[in-house]
Amino acid sequence: MQAMVEIADARKTYAGGFEALKGVSLDIRKGEILALLGPNGAGKTTLISCICGLAVPTGGAIRVGGHDVVDEYRRARNLIGLVPQEVNLEPFERVWNTVRFTRGLFGRPRDDARLEDILRRLSLWDKRDAKINELSGGMKRRVLIAKALSHDPEVLFLDEPTAGVDVELRRDMWEIVAGLKAQGTTIILTTHYIEEAEAIADRIGVIARGELLLVEETAALMARMGRKELRIELSSRLDAVPAALSGFDLALEEDGWTLVYAYDRSAERTGIARLMSAMGDAGIVLRDLRTHQSSLEEIFVDLVHGERSEGAA
């Protein structure tokens, strides 16, 4: 199956010489949700801008639905819906006209029933006759989403769609995203709410300093890089890890009351049973046991920190 979005060695260098993108290559499959993570200034928004035609790449090639975003701009852009970070709406226009006008810009025939469905799903139907400047910040964000969906795009870009919005909108947003995915829409999102990416994305991409560090299935990434820990609370305080336990990957927390054992949960043998036996032989009595699985946020921080360390070397 041909990728819905094809990015081959995409580069973007600005007039001052700053390289915002340094040869990004990525294929995004039809109907998948890809979460693009990266610190501020990593190149996320620049990449989205190049795909959506808001910026022109200075190297490489980008195709959407088989159409080159430079040579076949109109055909490519017609397939894309974009929810930008910035709220930029005509303040004195009414919600209904704003959304209907956007559908018309893309050459779609009038379909009031379709627009009503979108506004209802975004809890905007009761606000359809309100002027934009009468809406709260969260409601304005909903209008941006409605505009992006108005022409039934095959690819939807969400650039920090839930930043600074209420919990209700975040819930509504992800319900809509799930519905669009079920219909075959390809969705690319950037977010600072990493737990959302972990919960909803099929794949995770990590970008830093204009380079794509990795792209991997979310579950596989968690299994490969997610560190599992067994936290052992002790009945008696220790000053150091006993020599009898030196063969295990153990760390003693500063307070001396907790041993932390790191292990690979996918391994055939975790070593936990052997550790418990060795602790018994050493006369160490435990009070409680807890396990902890690394979150995507911890993995993301480790990846970006490692990239920065290598870059500084």
From TrEMBL:
Any one Pfam family match given in the protein's UniProt record, by short name: ABC_tran
Protein name: Multidrug ABC transporter ATP-binding protein
Residues making up the signal peptide according to the UniProt record: none
Keyword terms: ATP-binding, Nucleotide-binding, Transport
UniProt xrefs under InterPro entries: AAA+_ATPase, ABC_transporter-like_ATP-bd, ABC_transporter-like_CS, ABC_transporter_ATP-binding, P-loop_NTPase
GO molecular function annotation: ATP binding; ATP hydrolysis activity
Organism from which the protein derives: Roseivivax isoporae LMG 25204
ABC transporter domain: residues covered: 5-234
Classification via CDD domains: ABC_DR_subfamily_A
Stretches that traverse the bilayer: none
Domain of life: Bacteria
PROSITE patterns: ABC_TRANSPORTER_1 (PS00211), ABC_TRANSPORTER_2 (PS50893)
